C-alpha cells in the first residue's frame, strides 16, 4: 500500500486499512512488533496511533549518512571532530550487543564530546537520536533479520522506477499512476509457488565459513560458557575479527575469563573501570556471543541435504542466536554460529561447504 503525501492522516489511514483487511481476508488481529522508518514524525505518530506498543526502528544508514547525524555538523566548533570522533562513536553504537550496553555507551561518548567543547552538538544528538522515539537504530534493537535500515526498501523503489517509469526522479504520483497498477496486475495473475520465510534463505557465504575456520584455529579465540553445577553449555564467546588471535594481527587478544566477564558485564550496562572512548571498542565490542537456546541436535541428522536446506536453516535459528551484524541481517548464518556448530560436533566446515550452495561475500572485486 502507498500514500501520496507525507502526512499523519495519510499514514494512519493506511495502517488502519492494513489492519482492517488483515481481519477481513485472513481473520487475524494484526499487531506489529516493529515498524521501520527514517526519522519521520508524521509516520511515527501514525504508528503510535494505530499500534501503540510498536517499536520504531530508525534507519541507521540514513543516520550515518548526510541526512542524519551530520545534519547539524554546523554545531561543531571543530569540523574535523565529526569524522575523527563522532562518526567513529556512532559506528560503535550501531553494533552494540544489547539494549543495556547501547544505553551505557552513549553516556561515555556524549560526555567526551562535551568535554571537548562540543556541547551544542552533544545536546542535539542526545535529544534526537538517544531519546525514546528514535533510539532504536542499532542492529540488536529488533530480532534477527529485522534490521534498522531502509536500504532494501529504497533499492526496491529504485527498481520499480527503473522498470516502470522514465526517470528515477519521477514524482510519487507518476509512479503510483503509471507503474504500480501494472505491477499489481502482473503479480495478481501469477500463482505463488514459493514459501515465505522470516530469514535470508540465500546461499551460504563462503567467507563466513572461512572466518569460522580462523576462529577455530586457535583455542584462545573462543571461550565456552557453562552452567556452574551441571556444566551444560549455554553459550560461546568469540573474538571479533579485528581482535582475532593470529601472529599477523597486531590487535590480537586472548579470550580468557577476565575478558569474558568484562564483556558479559557490559551487556548488562556495567562498563568496566578505566573504559574511555579510546578503548571502548576493545573493552566492550571486541567479542561476540553465540547463545544456545537448547541442547538438542540440529536437523537433519545424520547428513546435510540440499533438499532440506530450509529445514536446516530453521533448525539453526531455533538453536542458535548471535549478536553480530551478519546474523542480524541474514537471520541465521555467521562465522560465529558456524564455529559453535563445529564445537558442538554437529557439523564439519568441509561438509557444510560441500553439502550446501555457496556464494562469495557481496561487494566489488578487491
TrEMBL record:
Matching entries from PROSITE patterns are given as: ZF_SWIM
Alphabetically ordered keywords of this record: Metal-binding, Zinc, Zinc-finger
Provide the GO MF annotations for this entry: zinc ion binding
Q: Which residues form the SWIM-type domain?
A: 309-345
Return the protein name: SWIM-type domain-containing protein
InterPro entries in the record, alphabetically?
A: Znf_SWIM
Superkingdom in the source lineage: Eukaryota
